[in-house]
Amino acid sequence: QVQLVESGGGRVQAGGSLRLSCAASGIAFSRVTMAWYRQAPGKQREFVAAITSSGTTSYSDPVKGRFAISRDNAKKTVYLQMTSLKPEDTAVYYCNTRQITVDYWGQGTQVTVSS
CA 34 to CA 49: how far, in whole Å? Predict the structure, then answer.
C-alpha cells in the first residue's frame, strides 16, 4: 500500500524559508518521479515541482528560482526547500507520485506566509 507522509509545514514571515519532507512507503521509490503540489484556499490544486528517478527537476514559473526539490533514495524521502517565501505561497502542500494511471497523495502540510 502506497503511503506518503508530509511534514515541515508551518508559519513563516515573508522572505523566510521552510523545508518540507515527504516520506514514502509501498513504492519502488528510486524508480519513480516524485512531485509537490499545492492548493490555496478557494483555488485548484496546482503543480509546484517534480523530480524524476534520474534527478531531473522541473518547477512551475511562480516558484522557479526560489524553491528546490531533491530526493534521498536511501531514506525514501523527497524534499522541497522553499526560500524567499511570499504570502501568495500560502497553501496546503501535497506530495504526489503516479503509478501507471493512479495518483497517490499525502495528507498535506499547511504553509502560511505572513506579510
Answer: 9
**Residue 46 and residue 62 in contact, taking contact as beta carbons nearer than 8 Å:** no
pLDDT-derived band at 11 (thresholds 50, 70, 90) equals very high
Three-state secondary structure call for residue 36: strand
DSSP type of residue 84: S
Give the residues across from 24 on adjacent strands: 4
115 Cβ neighbours under 8 A, 6+ residues apart: 13, 14, 87
Q: Which residues of 70-91 are buried (b: 16+ CB within 10 A; e: fewer)?
A: ebeeeebbbbbebeebeeebbb
Q: Find the radius of gyration of the CA atoms of the chain.
A: 13
114 pLDDT higher than 90: yes
Provide mean pLDDT across the span 54-60: 98
